[in-house]
From TrEMBL:
TPR repeats lie at residues 70-103. It comes from Glaciimonas soli. Residues 1-25 form the signal peptide. The keyword Signal applies. Keywords: Signal, TPR repeat. This is Tetratricopeptide repeat protein.
Amino acid sequence: MSLKAKGNMLSCGAILACLAISASASEIDAASPPKEMTYAERADHEIQLFHWNKALQIYRDELTKNEKNADAWRGIGRILRWEGHLEESRQAYEKAAALEPDDPDAALGIVNTYRLNHDFKQAAAGYADAQQRWPKDGDVQQAADEFAAESSPRVFAQYERDLAFRTETFGAGTPLLSNNDIQVVHVNDESLGVYVRKDDDAIFTHFFGLNNFLEFRYRRSNYTYSAPATDFSDIDWFNEYRLRYTFPITPEQVGTVTYTYRPTTLLTTQQTYNSTKLELELHSQWTPRFATLVGAGELRDLNDNPTTVNDLRTTSLVKAGVEYMVTQRLQTTATYITNPDLDNSIHSKTLFLLSYQWRDDLSSLFRYRYDDYKDGVNQRIASLALRYTPTPHIWAEVGILTASRAGRSGVYPEGTLIYKF
């Protein structure tokens, strides 16, 4: 018998054997009723499908049968925390803690609501108490370490480059008291072959709660030109004052109002004018996996080819965006913004982000940006980066960027490093 014939006989025999095994298994499965899922398994299944309300109902149905089920109370607390209902989440965790006082999960759930509400004083006391009660619990220690890093001073550095600009950023910040944060930043922003702008920023933020804060930013910017400046609109320096208030209309609907005031001095005449920008935004979380961003506003700045500082114009602003969780690990975001900058040089920006989380400490990101310049010389940028957070104290991102503009193209490195003490 030929090898080919033997091979065919073996293949047929293997197929018949598999069919026989499959038939036997089917008979066994038919004889045995399928195992019924527990309420916890059904709730976890709905969570994986982003059906949080269904999971909540499963837990609540279980509590109608046994109101002393601490696991169901913890499940409710967890989902309510994800949804931003921190007070209700804390109440659910407190009921679980009362039923099972020796379980650390409920205690951590309570403390986490204080952390998310930016009440660092209460959170610090809660984590310290949890570490004292459960000194050998790994989850307790990890949560305490993460909070310690979040509530400690930080330093950061960033490098970006494309065909139009090269930007180097350095800064430091620290939480202040229980619900404040201060940050200072220095930026070297070079418009290649045109000018170098040096920025010094100071930012103060006061947190009222989750998605509720007031931020004040001051920026001083000075320009140095590569060639003698001759254009009337060339800037010598400016001071910028920005006030931003973010507030939750509901936990799912968050509004932001931003006002920017920029007194500017021109280089060639030393005359001054005032630019202003008003922005209104609404971020809406419609489902656990789908959110939208809509915004509008008004920009007042020098007109194109001005001859006096009184030659100002008012331009409307529009912002629109969508966010979608494709899976538990894959997320995509798209944003469109008109007149994004106070210098009025860009008509619009289109941004796209695709991120995938490989594990808790490692993610990959693909970004695309299209800059629609008012002079018609537009720019396309695509980048691929890795984000790595090996410890609560280190946040790092490195990548490569490709840019094309006016028949030119280039590939550049980019990176960001944040260290929390």
